[in-house]
């Protein structure tokens, strides 16, 4: 009788652990996500570099005006830069936007946006600064400048 009860208890314990283990796996995956760009490349959210995530729209004049500055920042290689279409366009439409405006940094697929650690901004352009650990540490509202980015980095880097 004791063996039957022990067997039953072990089965129940096993059943109880399955959702807990699943939750741990899912939480671990969410803490180290990767995001897909319309180019087809996948990028880990955590990095050895600081990251800028810039929300933009084609109808937003300041957004278009800051693109050359963001291209320059992205090509220097000291920061990662990602773009996000505020309008949640289809991938082909985003590719057209990239070509029309000469965007030289990765723009995330709309499908990748669900896992972002921040919500859709109320103001455009908005640029989020993320630490190498993937934590959102600050936001810039309005046009990005290298001086503004450097000031934010000075404020947050140890």
Kindly summarize this structure in a few lines:
The protein is an alpha+beta fold. It has four helices and six strands. The protein has two domains: 1-31; 34-156, Glutaredoxin, CATH 3.40.30.10.
Write a concise keyword list for the protein shown above.
4 helices; Thioredoxin_domain; Thioredoxin-like_sf; single chain; 158 residues; membrane; 43% helix; alpha+beta; 4-stranded mixed β-sheet; Glutaredoxin; 2 domains; two-stranded antiparallel ribbon; antioxidant activity
CATH fold annotation of the largest domain: Glutaredoxin
Poorly predicted runs are: 21-31
Q: Which word captures the global form?
A: globular
Number of helices: 4
Number of strands: 6
Number of domain modules:
2
> Helix- and strand-based class?
alpha+beta
- The CATH architecture of the largest domain would be 3-Layer(aba) Sandwich
Helix and strand succession? HEEEHEHEEH
In CATH, the homologous superfamily of the largest domain goes by the name Glutaredoxin
Strand order of the largest sheet: 4-3-5-6
Q: What average pLDDT do the residues reach?
A: 85
As a percent range, the share of helical residues equals 40-55%
């Amino acid at each position: 009788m004791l063996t039957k009860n022990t067997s039953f208890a072990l089965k129940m314990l096993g059943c109880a652990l399955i959702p807990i283990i699943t939750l741990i796996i899912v939480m671990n995956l969410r803490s180290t996500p990767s995001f897909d760009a319309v180019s087809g490349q996948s990028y880990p959210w955590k990095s050895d570099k600081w990251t800028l995530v810039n929300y933009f729209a084609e109808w937003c004049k300041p957004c278009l005006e800051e693109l050359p500055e963001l291209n320059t920042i992205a090509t220097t290689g000291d920061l990662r830069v990602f773009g996000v279409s505020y309008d949640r366009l289809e991938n082909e439409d985003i590719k057209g936007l990239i070509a029309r405006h000469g965007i030289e940094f990765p723009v995330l697929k709309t499908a990748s946006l669900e896992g972002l650690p921040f919500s859709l901004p109320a103001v455009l352009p908005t640029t989020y600064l993320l630490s190498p650990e993937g934590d959102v540490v600050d936001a810039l509202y309005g046009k990005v400048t290298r001086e503004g980015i450097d000031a934010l980095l000075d404020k947050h880097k140890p």
